[in-house]
């Protein structure tokens, strides 16, 4: 793990947003957003309702296009005109509702829309690949030939994450991955997120749960009213975080801290 | 060797990829297979059980009331009748798979038969062109339903109900004042619908195919799965299934050949069922159909073109309905105002549901059309043999449909509570 922080690659972000803004008519949902994602790090995106998290995720997933600003992917400016473009670049999204078909089995769900051999499905190859993906995540799914309806919430989350790994993305975005889960299942999913990071992928995690965020994130990026409102390390105090999220601490000092924090964050990320 | 492998002696080999989890129960041996089957049925995964139980009950009752019911020639007639409505059912399976419905299939088949009568008999257009025209009309109307559904958000229940009336009107308009057009006896199409029977040797040869296919494909899958370190079916089980299938089909062929034999038209129907089964189970299209029926939004987000899936389903459904119209014109040697009216619609839908295709979308198979239509036609045929009035026939068929849907709903609730969706 530590090799990532000393690695020169660390400075080369896979994905960086430079001054990205998004307007819906007169409403500016995002203003001048700056965000860097490095390989092998978990960036938590937090903020109150209406802070622009979902809009940002949708821009990165190719659902919305930014009104201004540039997105650099591996140093190259890119435009994404649809979800397919984002997938092709290597940005995978695990949606909050998981978007699984309950009537289909695990293999069918993992390969949905990406089936091998359209005119004669290669079930054996797909099943083997599914097990590989699930085993990489050290997932505990009893059988991949059971319909997803028979799986628990945590297991479904695992299937959704495994599916996002299928196309070998460079970045995974998880929208509220633990929102609907119990204590044990949340821990399982957090382990899973860490394993994804350990594979060298960049992870963007959106969560309202500060405990989860603090448990896994290397950096915590706070959005407030569509603007960057500070970057924190996981050992930042709850008060600081909540202050940045709610805006109670919105003053010159915190803004200065947030300007300085990206470099501090990458050093303090992994104690 | 197969038992050794399934008992999974841990000191002997590493666990197979899909058998590594100790929590999962695996059916082992014949006892295990039986108890797994009982578990499945209990949890609401009924498969073709209701059909088989239904068939046994229906055939027992009708045979005890009138022994002619089980005579070879009556069964041959039954197969002729199954083929026409069964083809519609096959289309209905496509739309039910998406959780949609097409209520106009009866009228569509009526229009197709009127089309044949007017174009071929009255106007002298060559038969292939008339048939092609009827099928093209069906495809176009299916496309219209799909576009109404996807672009205007019109529920298929309403659009096809409107289509039912409009198409019935078109049928009456085309037939005009005469009301019915006779197709010439002795023509190829009427011979196909009424007379053409497979030679005995051919029907016996074809009856061998399912068993051979089960064995060959089963062994191939088994080899591939073993090579990939996945669990696989035992050879004994495969041979047993193939043997049962072969004996069953050979006996059926032998029995039907005691009468007239196996109709070519039924052969065509079974061929279509096999093709559709392949499409549903083995192609990306079939997988996408089930996905859209299960969760359309999830399917869309995973890159499936949902509009195109709707288009294909409705087009196939109307295509099969008009093909059935052509077949029933051949069967009756006429295109009449009665073609496709009455209980044709509901029989076709009931057959698909009785066969095990869910009205709620996401579950179904092509076989359900074949199995379901045999049940439905057995009832119709048996009631006709008993000389019951059509009033009673409608009431009894209605009751059977109601029972089928109740079984479907209960099974669905049970599946949900047992986590099998």
TrEMBL record, chain A:
Segments crossing the lipid bilayer: none
Xref: InterPro entries: AAA+_ATPase, ABC_carbohydrate_import_ATPase, ABC_transporter-like_ATP-bd, P-loop_NTPase
UniProt KW ATP-binding keyword: yes
Keyword annotations of the record: ATP-binding, Nucleotide-binding
Entry GO MF terms: ATP binding; ATP hydrolysis activity
Alphabetized SMART domains for the sequence: AAA (SM00382)
Domain ABC transporter: 15-250
Name used for this protein in its record: ABC transporter domain-containing protein
Key word Repressor present: no
TrEMBL record, chain B:
Topology with respect to the bilayer: Multi-pass membrane protein
Top-level taxon of the source organism: Bacteria
UniProt xrefs under Pfam families: BPD_transp_2
One Gene Ontology cellular component: plasma membrane
Record bears the keyword Thylakoid: no
Database matches in InterPro entries: ABC_transp_permease
Keywords from the named record: Cell inner membrane, Cell membrane, Membrane, Sugar transport, Transmembrane, Transmembrane helix, Transport
Membrane-spanning parts: 49-69, 75-98, 129-148, 155-175, 195-217, 238-256, 262-281, 309-332, 369-386
MF term (GO), any: transmembrane transporter activity
Entry's localization field: Cell membrane
Main location: membrane
Cited function: Part of the binding-protein-dependent transport system for D-xylose. Probably responsible for the translocation of the substrate across the membrane.
Official protein name in the record: Xylose transport system permease protein XylH
Annotated organism of origin: Sinorhizobium saheli
Record lineage: Bacteria, Pseudomonadati, Pseudomonadota, Alphaproteobacteria, Hyphomicrobiales
């Amino acid at each position: 793990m530590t090799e990532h922080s000393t690695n020169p690659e660390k400075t080369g972000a896979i994905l960086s947003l430079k001054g990205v803004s998004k307007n819906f008519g007169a409403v500016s949902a995002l203003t001048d957003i700056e965000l860097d994602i490095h390989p092998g790090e978990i960036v938590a995106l937090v903020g109150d309702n209406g802070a622009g998290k979902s809009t940002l995720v949708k821009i990165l997933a190719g659902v919305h296009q930014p009104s201004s600003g540039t997105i650099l992917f591996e140093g190259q400016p890119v435009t994404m005109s649809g979800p397919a473009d984002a997938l092709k670049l290597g940005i995978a999204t695990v949606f909050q509702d998981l978007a699984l078909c309950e009537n289909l089995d695990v293999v069918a769900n993992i390969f949905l829309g990406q089936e091998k051999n359209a005119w004669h499905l290669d079930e054996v190859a797909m099943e083997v690949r599914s097990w590989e993906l699930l085993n990489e995540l050290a997932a505990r799914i009893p059988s991949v030939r059971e319909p997803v309806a028979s799986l628990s919430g945590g297991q479904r989350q695992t299937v959704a994450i495994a599916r996002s790994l299928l196309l070998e993305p460079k970045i995974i975005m998880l929208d509220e991955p633990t929102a609907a889960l119990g204590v044990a299942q949340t821990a399982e999913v957090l382990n899973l997120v860490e394993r994804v990071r350990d594979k060298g992928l960049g992870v963007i995690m959106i969560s309202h749960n500060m405990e989860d965020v603090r448990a896994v994130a290397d950096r915590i990026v706070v959005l407030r009213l569509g603007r960057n409102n500070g970057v924190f390390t996981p050992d930042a105090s709850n008060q600081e975080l909540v202050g940045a999220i709610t805006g109670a601490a919105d003053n010159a000092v915190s803004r200065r801290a947030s300007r300085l924090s990206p470099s501090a964050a990458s050093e303090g990320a992994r104690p | 060797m197969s038992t050794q492998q399934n008992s999974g002696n841990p000191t002997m080999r590493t666990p197979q990829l899909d058998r590594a989890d100790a929590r999962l129960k695996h059916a082992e041996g014949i006892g295990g297979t039986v108890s797994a089957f009982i578990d499945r049925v209990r949890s609401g995964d009924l498969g073709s059980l209701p059909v088989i139980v239904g068939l046994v009950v229906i055939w027992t009752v009708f045979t005890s009331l009138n022994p002619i019911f089980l005579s070879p020639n009556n069964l041959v007639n039954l197969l002729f009748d199954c083929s026409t409505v069964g083809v519609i059912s096959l289309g209905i399976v496509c739309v039910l798979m998406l959780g949609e419905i097409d209520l106009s299939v009866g009228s569509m088949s009526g229009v197709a038969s009127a089309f044949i009568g007017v174009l071929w008999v009255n106007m002298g257009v060559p038969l292939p062109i008339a048939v092609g025209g009827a099928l093209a009309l069906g495809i176009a109307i299916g496309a219209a339903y799909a576009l109404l559904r996807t672009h205007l958000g019109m529920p298929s229940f309403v659009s096809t109900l409107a289509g039912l009336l409009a198409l019935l009107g078109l049928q009456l308009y085309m037939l005009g004042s005469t009301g019915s057009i006779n197709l010439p006896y002795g023509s190829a199409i009427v011979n196909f619908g009424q007379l053409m029977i497979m030679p005995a040797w051919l029907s016996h040869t074809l009856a061998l195919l399912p068993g051979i296919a089960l064995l060959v494909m089963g062994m191939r899958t088994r080899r591939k799965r073993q090579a990939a370190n996945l669990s696989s079916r035992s050879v004994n089980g495969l041979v047993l299934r193939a043997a049962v299938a072969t004996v069953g089909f050979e006996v059926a062929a032998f029995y039907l050949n005691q009468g007239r034999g196996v109709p070519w038209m039924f052969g065509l129907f079974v061929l279509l069922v096999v093709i559709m089964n392949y499409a549903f189970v083995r192609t990306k299209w079939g997988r996408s159909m089930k996905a859209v029926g299960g969760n359309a939004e999830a399917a869309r987000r995973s890159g499936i073109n949902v509009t195109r899936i709707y288009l294909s389903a409705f087009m196939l459904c109307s295509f099969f309905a008009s093909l059935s119209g052509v077949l029933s014109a051949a069967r009756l040697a006429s295109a009449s105002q009665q073609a496709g009216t009455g209980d044709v619609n509901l029989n076709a839908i009931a057959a698909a549901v009785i066969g095990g295709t869910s009205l709620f979308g996401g579950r179904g198979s092509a076989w359900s059309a074949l199995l379901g239509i045999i049940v439905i036609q057995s009832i119709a045929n048996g009631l006709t043999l008993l000389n019951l009035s059509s009033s009673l026939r409608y009431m009894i068929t209605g009751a059977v449909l109601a029972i089928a849907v109740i079984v479907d709903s209960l099974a669905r609730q049970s599946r949900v509570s047992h986590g099998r969706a």
